[in-house]
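To assess whether ligand presence alters the predicted conformation, the chain was also submitted together with magnesium ion. Input:
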Amino acid sequence: MSLASETIELAATDGHPVEPESLIDSALVVRGMTVTYGEKPAIFSVDATIPVGSMVAIVGPNGAGKSTLIKAAMNIVPRVSGSVSIFGQSLGKARDRIAYVPQRASIDWDFPTRVIDVVLMGLYRDLGLLRLVRARHRKAALDCLERVGMADFADRQIGQLSGGQQQRVFLARALAQNADLYLLDEPLAGVDAATEKAIIDVLQGLKAEGRTVICVHHDLATVADYFDHVLLLNVRKIAEGPIATTFTEDNLQAAYGGRLATTHIDQLHLPAA
Ligand code: ADP
Ligand code: MG
């Protein structure tokens, strides 16, 4: 049985058949995904079709289920229903092609680990069973730190860094994974302007290499500048597609429950209707 047909069967058992073409051309396809932590769903019946090579913002108010959507796609939280396909494969088969950077606030920063060791974790597939770190692994990790401007901090304890520096180190770890699909949960939250620019440059470089980048993003003012595709979420999917047709005032008001002030909307550089 081919990989694609296995995924299609998997999807079809949930009653959400997926067309084969969209599976192959898509980095990530989610169908009918529902997650509940208690009684109320955190996300409900969400569909998403993320094209290969796109740079995607997941946008929505606090508690909209943005982190949950990413975690459920990665099997980090269990889902009530729904299917996930990554480059036309099941998550298990595609796992090595994905790098995930969790929301900074969800990480325990007191664990005693050096920056270089955090990045080396991204190389776990190359390290072999004995986890033997050779000179070339250290060099590769340092190269990734260099790309995010953190090479000088290699031997520091991760807990001693500022929030923005920690975020860069986790991006370096993701770079070390050499993935095809990058899932980042609010990579720009709480970072200064210089770090924001550095992180966006790295992410746009990944996109230029044909990789797919998906970010939960909290700053509506920069969505149109940084991203080419947007998914608006508020428990349900409100809209998804290219910025030009999807990042509209109507969709934003729907996602934010009509709570965005007109003055705020005016500042967003929305694509002309
Ligand atoms: P967002 O990332 O959009 O802010 P989340 O996905 O973190 O939203 O959370 C969606 C909803 O699920 C929120 O109401 C949140 O309080 C709840 N939630 C998130 N994680 C858990 C958890 N581990 N246990 C219980 N409720 C949770
Ligand atoms: Mg979140």
